[in-house]
Amino acid sequence: MPKLYVKEYSRALAGKNVCIACRQGILWDHFDSIMADIKFLTRQGIQTSLYHNIPNRFANQKTLNKLIKRLADTKIVRVPSVTDFYSYVLDHEIHVHKLIFLERKCLINRRGQRINALTTEAVRRTLTAYGDMIANTNFRGALERICQRIEDGYYDRVHILPAGKHSIRNELFSIEGSGTLIANNFTESFMPVESNSEMNLIDGILKLYRSEGYLKPRTRQYLQANQDNFYVTLIDGIVVGCVEKKSIDRQTVEIGALAISTRFRNQRVGLFTLKAFMREMTRQGYRRFISLTNNPKLIDLYRQMGFEEERQGMFPERRSQSPGVAVFIKNTFP
């Protein structure tokens, strides 16, 4: 189970509206899990609403009453059975911070891998490339309308989640997420670390990279001792990336611990973080940038930014600390 950062993420969500839309079959199959997740949100001070389409029949009265009783602080809306579920939700729920559709699956690519985050433009490309992989044809048709509503400013964020235990809380309170996020207004900011809460999220992001074998372990003690050397990229006030300043000499700085949360990889957040870091280091007087890495994606990013592999044996002391790891360098001297 992913680690939850409830304190850190709650600050960005408190007082905002989160709407959950769930069709009757999925709600039947995951009733207790969905109830528990929605109650979890309300305990964090988040305004919640639930759209469902369980028919208003005598046989369903016990379940409908249970919804009302267990979700006393949640606005509950029953979609008429004769109405298209997705059209009804999109017509009636406007100006919400997050709209969550609980489905059987999140969006996946041709390799069967979860798609973490998309812009509306990317959603349309995805539908063209492999929209046939979305089993629910009604939902596939609704995606274009969802994109249009986002572009018209009705929703800040739309999430498509696979229904299941802790699915909603894992999506909203973990670094990895559990489904697919669709949004356009990703606005990044870059700044030095300011709080222990930010260090908690850095710790979580770096642990994910360490498990992939691309970063040396950094203990919590190391992070606390070197907090002044870490910088973060934030989206919606939440840390989504980090980088560490490692001074080599008066003119040379190493780019260390460049890492992006799983949710925002392949969204050019890494490029933003690298550019912002280099601007800040240039302001501080550094003119040479180096990085030691064997991460193929990071190497591609460095080459894109004009870095070259250093093959003359410069920085022997630093190389000795990471034997077998390639050194990339970029000079910005006038």
Key traits:
Aminopeptidase, 2 domains, alpha/beta, 13 helices, 334 residues, elongated
CATH class category name of the largest domain: Alpha Beta
Strand content: 15-25%
Name the helix and strand elements from N-terminus to C-terminus, one letter apiece.
HEHHEHEHEEHHEHEEHHEEEHEHEHE
Query: What class do helices, strands and sheet pairing give?
Result: alpha/beta
Total helical elements? 13
Q: What's the CATH topology label of the largest domain?
A: Carbamate kinase
**What is the total tally of β strands?**
14
CATH superfamily of the largest domain: Acetylglutamate kinase-like
Q: In terms of per-residue confidence, which ranges show pLDDT below 50 for 5 or more consecutive residues?
A: none
Shape: elongated
Overall pLDDT confidence: 91
Proper CATH architecture of the largest domain: 3-Layer(aba) Sandwich
Strand order of the largest sheet: 3-2-1-4-6-7-5
Gap between N and C termini: 50 Å
Main β-sheet: number of strands, strand sense, barrel status?
7 strands, mixed
Helicity range of the residues?
25-40%
Radius of gyration: 23 Å
Q: Total domains, how many?
A: 2
Description:
The strands form 2 sheets. This protein has a 7-stranded mixed β-sheet, sandwiched between helices. It has a 7-stranded mixed β-sheet with strand order 8-9-10-11-12-14-13, with helices on both faces. It contains 13 helices and 14 strands. It has helices spanning 6-13, 24-29, 31-43, 61-70, 85-92, 120-130, 137-151, 167-173, 196-211, 220-225, 269-283, 296-304, 316-321, and strands at 17-22, 47-52, 74-78, 96-103, 117-118, 155-162, 180-182, 188-192, 230-235, 238-247, 252-260, 288-292, 308-309, 327-331. It has 2 domains: 6-182, Carbamate kinase, CATH 3.40.1160; 188-331, Gcn5-related N-acetyltransferase (GNAT) (Aminopeptidase).
